[in-house]
Amino acid sequence: MDTDKILAELEYKAVRSSGAGGQNVNKVSSKVVLSFRPATSAALTDEEKLLVAARLANRINAEGQLVLHCDEDRSQLRNKELVTRRFMQLMAVAIKPEIPRKATRVPRAVMQKRRDNKARNSEKKQSRRRPDF
To answer: How many CB atoms lie within 10 A of CB 114?
Structure first.
């Protein structure tokens, strides 16, 4: 993943935000909407495109765009920085290769402990029975 190329491919759009800000909300477009097309990206390899498509399938819309937005701050520039940082973290997680789990044996002490617990439980239930004369 080439971060410089990806940053060049990102599309930003500023829209009016809702929430706190008073009259500022009605006048200033501080909300930032980021859109990225992973399928047509030149910065991603074919393998990375497949990973992104599979892992972020619920975030990619019908047009094939990954859309993120941020309206946390009153500043458009700060919102742009926040949404870009969030996007880069999301891509890093999506592209990270999955490490296969190593199968391990059950330790001998754990098996012995289970047997001891079963024996103790059995003895407890034996003691509850009516005595056999």
So the answer is: 11
Q: Output the pTM of the full model.
A: 0.68
Which amino acid would we find at residue 24? N
User: How many Å is the maximal CA-CA distance in the chain?
Assistant: 94
pLDDT means over runs of 10, the chain (133 residues)? 84 80 71 89 88 89 89 86 92 89 94 97 92 79
Give pairs for 117-120: CB < 8 Å, separation 24+: none
CATH 2.40.160.20 fits 3-95, yes or no: no
Classify residue 28 by burial, with Cβ atoms within 10 Å: 0-12, 13-18, 19+. Answer: middle
